[in-house]
Amino acid sequence: MADIAALYRDTDAVGLAQLVKRREVSPLELLDAALARVEETQPAFNYIVRLFPDRARRRAAEPLPDGPLAGVPFLVKDLGIDVAGEISGMGSRSMRYTPDWNSILVERADAAGLLTFGKTTTPELGLTITTESAATGQTRNPWDPARIAGGSSGGAAVAVAVGAVPLAQASDGGGSIRVPASCCGLLGLKTSRGLVPHGPKLETMWNGMAVSGPIARTARDCAAFLDMLAGPAPGTRAAPPVPGGGWLANLETAPRPLRVALLDAPITGTPVDPEVSAALAAAARQIEAMGHIVEPAQPAIDWPALMAANITNIAVCTAADIEQFRLAQGRDPGDGLEPAVANWRRMGLERGGLAHELALRALEAACIALDRFFETHDIILSPTLAEPPIELGILSLSNPDHQQFIETYTRFCPYVGLANMTGTPAITLPLGHSRSNLPIGIMAHGRFGSDLTLLQLAHQLERATPWATRRPPV
Fold first, then answer.
1. How confident is the model at residue 1 (pLDDT cuts 50, 70, 90)?
2. What is the domain partition of the chain in residue ranges?
3. Fewer CB within 10 A of the end CB, N or C, for the chain?
């Protein structure tokens, strides 16, 4: 098992599936390696909500398809993804339920031969960018356990960072894939709106702002994720095109020379840590050396109006999510909600229909402005976060100091929300480290439907500055 354990930790998902196909290792051996790694690391970092290995063992015993991820252990987030017969907890003490259905993503993962064996941690309803919950405790960063792993997909990011899985499903409504991937030194792709389905119960979350995508160590694993799990489903009304031949087959093709807009100072005007700025400058130089054009530029967007619209939309959607739970389960979560979540609910109930419609129109105006910007530029290059991972506790939904929460959130995370509000793809790239050895992510943000271009750029950078073997000391 020691040899298989090392092989498992040192090989990406596509590589593991190739070993399974050649019968050099069995799916059950990989699953045992994954479970052993969880047992070894879960007590220190708290990234698993629940395990259901018997489900994965049954799938491993069945014939596997001839696909790029067949036989690979896999984890899904405990928010918005349902596994029949297994509790969905949403990071909440009071909003738990047990579905008798699988999410479409889970069905597609099963069909792809992935071995889904557990669910990862999240804050309550995914409403903050750290994975801390009164229900499940603090998920800790394997680079420094005193710091956040990011959120709301922090459990997924830690699972990949510690080597429990090479690839995990995550979701992103306001940076929730890219923030934890950045904090943990990984790739994280926020996909274009409509690319990966949410069904079967809902096909749009937060009016299209929240999407599913991969957290991984390699670009080819992200591409394989899309090959297996992306594509329209019942209820899909608008989706970006799928590249001919698939994502993985097109990955080796270098993107044409790109015009890259360099965005260092956030539109919000908040400061950026000097080490983050230095990492961004180094990334820009590397991208220029690969033949792309990099120049300072930023879209002309009414940022205060957009942020106000974003708050209204999230508040109304949160209130609606809680009401839908109340109607479906016959109980109100009430006092079980964490203070910040209860506040989001209250704000949503106070907003009227007119206010929400005006907010949606402001979001559309931002989409138009961004698309016009992308007529002359292909990529916006920025930091993912304005500073390295911060200490635990400050961004918790139970932090009683609301002003501290708002000030820290605004300073720490000014870049990621634009992609959610406009439905566009963005990827965080593990290109930097601070002097104290904390990961620094650099974000490439593209026009709607340019997910493949982002992955091709990531693959170019990965070959120029390999990062997959850069691991936390655990």
1. very low
2. 2-464
3. N
